[in-house]
């Protein structure tokens, strides 16, 4: 075995999101989010589960942060619940909600953990949802106002800001497929949602720049390399899938234009919604790109409206899958990072999510998860290969810190490096074997392979 070492100053962290862990859905003046409402609709979530209590991080944050410190975690990426701070999404600011995040940030800094704050991780104030949500251009301007409220309170202590989490998933799962809140199926309005999300990023970035000029700002995207079922990477299906999943969210930021293959459709969906100056706002320089990555996508041509491709599973009998049904394919991580390096002039990158869902079991006070350790080793090896090839990867955040509410899957899918016992009324936390392994990685700035 050899010791693999990452560059000096490499950031090691873990990540969560507000709706998935906080709970306290109606405490201390918090307004309803679209997820509070969506999860109560019959048949939307497995077993009828919801995030009303989730991991009760709202009350247990000190305990959780202390555990992070014990595990040598140096940075924590978390998201702020917009309706906790601004119950109706606009106007009135709920001081108790702001106070919670101030206490959270102060506790992190007290424990020498650097906060990376995501301003939007899918929980939109329900009152804004009822006014059209991300189909309404005004939501982007309300998001900018919300950004200003947060940065004015926390900007003296938070130095890394992520505007949005995975706008591709917001568009696809929320407004095309309908599996996520708000559960709409409007494929021919999809690019209107995309544009309004990207506009929200641009407006938010400008507010942060004005209020906290020394802060670092970026956008986190769900990105996957795309391969052809025939191993020919130049097929129309591959180009289409890559444009929809990856370039749609990166070209406007790094090139100031929508991908050529999609441009006419973007304009068609955005009649009257795409304004002069929008692309200049969206493409204002950001400091880093957040990359959430789990698996690759293999596609073949298929006449589905909007998509024109069909994702398929690999044919290899050796292929392995997570409990989410996602292929374990670490080689794709290297391909993705090398493509970003080449296509977008090698931006600074943080891996803001990477991890695996498994059917973890608590036995005799322990959770043994060797498959997760192997997964992290293999994926981190691909990250290191990309770094050695010149990619500017600055940090890695494992998803997730806690077993949490996994959206439409409820609590069955376990991504955490810390087990949460849902049979225990106190939701006892137990670090898994992977957490102990990762603690050593964080301490040593690398691992043996």
Describe the structure.
With 449 residues, the protein is an alpha/beta fold. It has one domain (3-448): Glycosidases (TIM Barrel). Helices cover 38% and strands 16% of the residues. The chain contains 15 helices and 15 strands. The protein has an 8-stranded parallel β-barrel with strand order 2-3-4-5-6-8-11-12, surrounded by 5 helices. A 3-stranded mixed beta sheet has the order 7-9-10. Strand 11 (349-353), helix 14 and strand 12 form a beta-alpha-beta unit. The termini are close together.
The total of beta strands comes to: 15
Task: Please give the radius of gyration in angstroms.
Answer: 21 Å
Q: What strand line-up does the widest sheet have?
A: 2-3-4-5-6-8-11-12
What's the number of structural domains?
A: 1
Briefly, what CATH class?
A: Alpha Beta
Strand content: 15-25%
- CATH topology: the name is TIM Barrel
Uncertain ranges:
none
> Overall mean pLDDT score?
97
Largest sheet: 8 strands, parallel, barrel
N-C termini distance: 5 Å
Protein topology:
Elements: E1 3-5, E2 11-15, H1 18-21, H2 34-38, H3 57-70, E3 75-79, H4 82-85, H5 95-110, E4 114-120, H6 126-129, H7 138-154, E5 160-165, H8 167-175, H9 190-211, E6 216-222, E7 226-228, H10 236-254, H11 263-269, H12 278-282, E8 288-292, E9 297-301, E10 309-312, H13 331-343, E11 349-353, H14 370-388, E12 393-399, E13 418-420, E14 429-431, H15 433-444, E15 446-448
Parallel strand pairs: 2-3, 2-12, 3-4, 4-5, 5-6, 6-8, 7-9, 8-11, 11-12
Antiparallel strand pairs: 1-15, 9-10, 13-14
